Amino acid sequence: MPARVVDLRSDTVTHPTPAMRAAMASAEVGDDGHGEDPTVKRLEALAAERLGKEAAVLVSSGTMGNLAGALTQTEPGDTMIVGAYCHPSLKGAAGIAVYGGVKPYEIPTERGRMNPDDVRAAIRSVRESEDGQPTLLCLENTHNQQNGVPLDPAAVGSASAVAHEHGLRVHVDGARLFNAAVALDVPASDLVADVDSVSFCLSKGLSCPVGSLLCGDADFVERARGVRKLLGGTMRQSGVIAAAGIVALDQMIDRLAEDHANGRRLAEGIAALPGLSTNPDDVPTNLVFADLDPAMFNGDEFSARLAAEGVLVGGGQRPRFVTHYGITADDVDFALAAIGRVTADTRTAAAA
Ligand SMILES: *Cc1c(COP(=O)(O)O)cnc(C)c1O
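^ thats the input. predicted complex w/ pyridoxal-5'-phosphate below
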């Protein structure tokens, strides 16, 4: 293993901060299965307040938040309308199909943004096919595969309005919702004012060891608690986890701006290197994607050679570099120097 490692694979690799560890060590706890954990209750109330919703429930992961959110608002045989390349379709749809009997129906997006006409057409098409009622629209904010683009309140509102007009409910996969809020400089509550449910991750840029919150009105959250129980997701003295979440919501949101600045710094550096292309003006948050020139690089080889230099990135022909708590501007420069060496070696080899 190289002496210095800069891990840009994901913001899920973040470790709890010293303040989180201290809060976890001294957390007041009880059996949350009986609704008796005061720290979990505090976190759920705080999350609900931050998002302008009536209630929230702590779940183990973003995947469980989306799954419980979908299961609570659909019946088996229903259709969920989702944007192409969105996480609940790419990575969560199997769970929603297997456990909820819900079919995803994908529509195109323009950088994560849905055209209200496309939403309307999708609803009509599903209804005309008589193949499962469309009951849920799912949005993603920030949009992972679309360079981490944040959806502004107008984009969320226009898609949600069409869904509501036709009797659908709206769920937001807000795994990185606070990155969106910081990038757009709006309160997170403005981003979900028009939707029925939202889940966000504590365990990504907010640096908690584990946990997500699923938020909505009181009736929805009550039913989601029942679904969480069915999924085996009810926890006991989870105040230990929740304590870190409270620290995250109090201390770790504003600093996301630093991750966004580092994302841009990284993209600017990468754009200047041969064989990789990325647009630094299209890095609004902490996710940087680069396309590798196939004549120069094989994606797996590229990530393996970078790993040997101490820089870890997501693999494939379109590697993803994620900035997060613990990654400094100096780490970004270290990573850029390593990428530069790999690029230079590849050119020399090609010329030989
Ligand atoms: C990471 C992620 C999830 C899943 O969260 P986990 O906590 O890893 O289960 C869901 N949606 C998006 C957009 C994500 O980036």
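The two ends are 29 Å apart (CA to CA).
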